Amino acid sequence: MENLALIESFSEFKGDKNIDRVTLMAILEEVFRAALKRKFGSDDNFDIIINPDKGDLEIWRNRVVVADGEVEDPNEEIELSEAQKIEPDFEIGEDVSEEVKLVDLGRRAILALRQNLISKIYEHDSTNTFKHFKELEGDIYSAEVHHIRHNAIILLDDDGNEIVLPKSEQIRSDYFRKGESVRGIIKTVELRGNKPVIILSRTAPEFLVKLFEQEIPEVFDGLITIEGVARIPGEKAKVAVDSYDDRIDPVGACVGMKGSRIHGIVRELGNENIDVLNYTKNTQLYIARALSPAKVVSMKIHEEEGRADGKKGRVDVFLLPEEVSKAIGKNGVNIRLASQLTGYDLDVQREGVEAEDDVELTEFSDEIEAWVIKEFNKIGLDTARSVLEKDVKELLKRTDLEEETILEVQKILREEFED
To answer: Where is the K Homology domain (predicted)?
Structure first.
């Protein structure tokens, strides 16, 4: 009966961790063999019989009978006189099986054995959890808020698995209370030590794709395909869709009557404004659609292979002056998303302004720092006149530049035209 407490250790784990019988028996045998090896030097001549369902455990040591005084390996050999104490009719050369009681291993060995058993079962459980969630990477997953920290929300699923939603993976408008259900995609799963760390994301473009699959049957069935996604989480997104069935209007099917189909997705994403557009392999038409609601007059594409940023190249987009602000959008959001979606840097040009009447900002790189020029480029301003046409207050709102910097830049540009 001295093995009962130890057996109870794995019985409770069997219920909590849902370990199958074969795996449990393999873990137990591994743990006990390690203990026997430490005690006797070898476990090769031991038989271990385990019945985890009943809590039965038997350990038998097999030794060969030798003449008294001729034992060379006490783990594998037993003197005749000792063997006959077990069974009087044993003779030299016969095999003796003797049961080993756990108490024979010593108290410290038993404590170590129990701790090793617990560790192995947790390790097995962690490995299974890791494998399970690794297969779910990129899929939508729901869990409840368990704990809120300043840099992350800790979630628990129905099986008690801990899932982390970092601040960086939350939409800016996200606000969750304890016990509230949260949806996102499993972004990454990795083992840190023996513990699986599961990261949930609500900002990844893939989350938007999966929401389309959940909410729009034609996307789920593959009748409509999503060819591209660009997101500024919680603010605006552009989704390019296509269909191989000419009878299906992919944009109409995704949006629904009066936006009925896409409304649930918008609400899930904190009222993120979603533009759905028809995908096309015609690069010029694709760029024009991506810049909607602006109407493009013409464009010139400069292909640039092997760029470090992965972009395909640069495009000069020509628009009427009144369309420029639409193409750029509030805080440069529209042109940034169009650039992400198409894979090109988009430079907005005013149709009708002759090249000699304007100067590119890069021409002033000896007087204006590169990072300042980049700030203007972010909102679609890449020429001297385009910056001079803007009010200082508007530039303050749309860039991260200070008023003093903007005034200095405009002064430099103004002097160019005065000269």
So the answer is: 233-306, 311-393
DSSP-derived 3-state class of residue 96: strand
Structural domain spans, the chain: 4-132, 137-201, 204-279
CATH class held by domain 137-201: mainly beta
- Tokens matching residue 229: 């996604």
- Cα gap 335→321, rounded to integer Å: 15
Query: Closest Cα partner for 18 from 128, 163, 117, 156?
Result: 128
Residue pair 303/312 in contact (Cβ under 8 Å)? The answer is yes
335-344 mean pLDDT: 94
**Do the first three CATH levels of 137-201 and 204-279 match, i.e. the same topology?**
no
Does the domain at 204-279 match CATH 3.10.105.10? Answer given as: no
Domain 4-132 has CATH 3.30.1480: yes
Which residue's entry shows tokens 């749309």? 398
The tens digit of pLDDT for each residue in 103-120 reads: 767 677 767 777 777 777
Closest of 68, 86, 85 to residue 77, by C-alpha: 68
- Name the DSSP class of 339: H
Angle among Cα 130, 132, 158 to the nearest 5 degrees reads 100
Strand 181-192 and strand 162-166: the pairing is unpaired
Per-residue HEC secondary structure of 212-272 comes to HHHHCHHHHCCCEEEEEEEEECCCEEEEEEEECCCCCCHHHHHHCHHHCCCHHHHHHCCCC
